[in-house]
Sequence to fold (195 residues):
Amino acid sequence: MDNQLEKKVFAWAKADKNNLSDCKEEYCATRDIFQARLDKMTNSLLNAKKISEEDVYILTAIAGEIGNNSFDHNLGSWPDVMGVFFGYELADGEIKIALADRGQGLLATLKRVKPELKNDSEALITAFNERISGRAPEPRGNGLKFVKENIKDRKMHLLFVTGQARAELNDKMIVEEVNENITGSLALITYKYAR
Fold:
């Protein structure tokens, strides 16, 4: 599979806000548009019959959790363009799902409840390993742990980038600093299946 979707999501996340017109098909300005496109993806994957129904619903839940986090944690305080990029491809024994937002990012969100966080890497480690939410005092904070467990259990791959850090998750989690800066967050989910 070529990496057109990957290139497109990175370009959207880093572009000047006046140059986002190339992604009209993937751009979801509001949660209801995102939900409608998520439902469309679910139906498309079910109809393709390439992977089990259970795995389709797990992929949908993972994408839904990441996309909904974008809306939940930037509500009323989008620094740039409101909404998310959401696209997917099914080809060559692989499903790729790409999500991104131009929001505040994990560090700004989590610093509200854990001010001692120093950088984007610490925010990533915290988000995927601790029961914590940037929407305290609401009893939340399990979403990215659910994502991490299912990525591992289903032998998928997740690349999650926020600020100047990236996490690669499959059977383990590797976090590293990067030179580029994604002000919000960006996620690429890859699921390989037998053809």
In short: The chain has a mean pLDDT of 90. The domain at 4-14+24-192 is CATH 3.30.565.10 (Heat Shock Protein 90). The helical segments are 4-14, 31-48, 53-74, 105-111, 120-129, 143-153. The beta strands are 27-28, 84-91, 94-101, 157-169, 173-192.
